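Example (one chain per record):
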Amino acid sequence: MTLRDNLIAAGAATTLAVLVLSFAGVSFADPPPQSKSPVTGYPTWHQDYVDEVYEINYSFTLLALIFSTGAAYGAYRATRGPSRSLTGFVTLATGNEEASTQINEFIQFYINATWVAIVGYLFFDVGKIWAVVGALHNLLEVALLIVLQYGGRVSSLSFALYMFAYICLTIILSVYLPWPFDAVFFRWQGLCSDFGLIVVFVRTYFSTKNQLKAFGDADRHDLELAKAQRAADQLAQDQEQQLRNGVTTSSSQSVTISAAAPANGSHNPLHSLQSGWKKFVALAPTPHGQHSGANGDSSQTPAASHEPRFGGVRASVINLVPANATSGRGNSDTISIVALNQNPSIWGVEWHNPDQILLLVVAAIFHVIGNCMTTIWITNTYALSAFQISYGVSFPLYAYYLYVDNHALRQTKIYLPDTSKIKTFIGACLAIAGATATVRAGLYVSTH
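Predicted structure:
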């Protein structure tokens, strides 16, 4: 905890406190009349739109539904079957690493929950009934935040209980609070998680970028990672051979590899590799049975007989030669890096870590822009259209991220940002302040 962190935390907390105090002069004694849903006739969480044309409203809603349907299908296609992502999420403070599988699953669930929310909007419009399905969208945002906060994976019962408590509390308050407190509360809690995703994604991008920069360049990082992969494969072969010989090994056995430290002298998380981490890196190529050595030792299998696979899917191998080595056939300095696509260009874009995280950043920003516009200018038809269009942009970007992560990236790592208490406090204050400022601006515009 540094002085700089303390000053930033104090500034964030002060800003949030000032925003909360600004609500002291807001009067809710005479709320505006609620609009009626054209389908159900029940009250909604907004007033009548100025110069609203139902055909335009439903046209943009259908457009958002079409794009979200495409995003849901694209996410399914990108992640179907065993995860083919070669990305690991690393917590630098502990050295723990998790596969991207659960994060990708939650992003896919997030897209699906959004599709359900859009369908619910078509039938009910936003209101107390819609809150039951709309809360699922926010639930997945909160789940994503928690998964990233805890290193890329959660499996404890407390996580499930927290999610259950969150969804129940959100729905109960949204249903029982009177107008306009129900609408204000639901919008505010949703914006908190929206802004929270921006904060986390931006921090993750810069954390990964800085860590890769410490190696000099991304290629050097992946070379070191390939050495760690080679050590993991050798360890797996040794353990398999020992099991064949009737010798058991401890799951905590570790192997140390000879790898250069980052240029800035900081800790290299690739130096030591626990055998228990093997599931978080690309699996070793499995030789065909007919090519096994006479004694069954796979280490004696000719290299040409190894067929790189990951999750049952044939992979490619990218051969990189360090800058200080001489290229040439049979060069022992050549490092092989597992990849899922020989052509790294996807739709004309060549993806390199951490550029793919920018897809998440842009998707979250578009989503927040749409929500902010319809919160501030709640009766403006153009703001409503922008809100609906933002859904048609954001969630295809989330699906595209899943496609890039599962098909376009070579084996690499994402380094999660510092999750110490003060950093988490600052991030939470920024997210809550963004949501509070947006709601306050909406109340100001609607009363002037």
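Caption: Residues 341 and 408 are 6 Å apart (CA to CA).
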